[in-house]
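Hey, I was hoping to borrow your eyes for a little while. I'm sending you its amino acid sequence along with the backbone structure tokens. Take your time with it, there's no hurry, and the full record follows here.
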Amino acid sequence: MRTSLIQHLIAGLVLLNTCVCYFSSSVHGMDVTDPFLTKYCIDCHSDSEASGDREFSTLNLKQNSLEMQIRLQEVIDQLTLATMPPEDANQPSEQARLEAINRLTKTLAGMRAKTRSTGGQTVFRRLTRREYQNTISDLLGINMLMFDPTIEFPADNLNGSFDNVGHTLVTSGFLLEKYLEAADDSVEKAFEQLKESVPQSWVFKDYFYQQAELRIAHDLAFKHRYLVLYDHRHNDKPEGAYGHLDDLSKGVPSDGVYEVRVHAQALHRDTPYSQAAIQLDTSEPFRMGVRPGNTAIGDMVHTQPIEPLMGETVIEDNTLKWYTFQIPLDKGHGPRFTFENGAHSTRGASGRVFRIHRDLIPEEHRDKKTIVLQRNWLLKEGLIPQIRIHEVRL
């Protein structure tokens, strides 16, 4: 019985091998080319004389292999550029060339569609980044608002508009390494949430260091007594787009909900400078937002990968008031204040104000040429729209 089973298996393998060989031979010997290629291309691109190392005598338009698709794409590219056939060869009419391009393009599209198809089979696949995040959140009860264990994962390949098509999702060695790191981070995060936190409070006032570009100007203008917001956060070279608490250099000590109180006012919404100069719509009340900043990244004055809007309010003009927010913060994060509808480019406003509104600048200061000198004067003596924060209590 056992011998009979082995014999049947061997016979089956031999038969399968025979079928495979027959199929392979029959397909390989089936040279199906386009009539345009036969007429205008084969003479120079055949087995015996493959000009440019491109031979089309075995170009089989019934195959869907990646190699065949690459070869066909090269043909379409050359016909589209009208570089082939060469000038000294028999030339097709313009209509024939365009018809060939259209026909071969449709053939290539069909090849690619068949390559992408799974033949009606369900492909066993991995989780997408989005699904991984949701799974971790559900399994471990983690708030994912400021935590993303997949941030270093490669982007998921899209098929059309879908990111969860099995055969397009690649699993690489690099991704497997990141899976292990993400698992460690997620478990550590889950245990961190189990720790009891001790209520703490902080007061920040009288000294706010923002960013290097504003250091000299703010020192001359008000000795860093205020946290001042000028730009919106999407600027290419923002100045005063994020107001962070430099003294909270390591962020809050534990995950939790924090009360943030801000003593602030909106200034110079009635500025005499034109919208062209300051690039800000002053008809709208100024809106201040609160977004988290991850101190582990280090750069707290520019955009970070994860910075959801945690709170937002309108700041009253010329009136110093307290504004209160209740916001969640993860360990190592700190609040960053933003001018949600701020100026487009305060950095460039210095030169524009000196150029457009020269008459509004005292004569003894009009000849300042560098952006540093112009900024220093403008932030001290000028009327640049801003949100000025005097104190923060956390």
Remarks:
- The chain has ten helices and nine strands.
- Confidence is low (pLDDT under 50) at residues 1-31.
- The longest helix spans residues 2-28.
- The beta strands are 203-205, 227-229, 242-244, 256-267, 287-294, 311-314, 321-329, 333-339, 386-393.
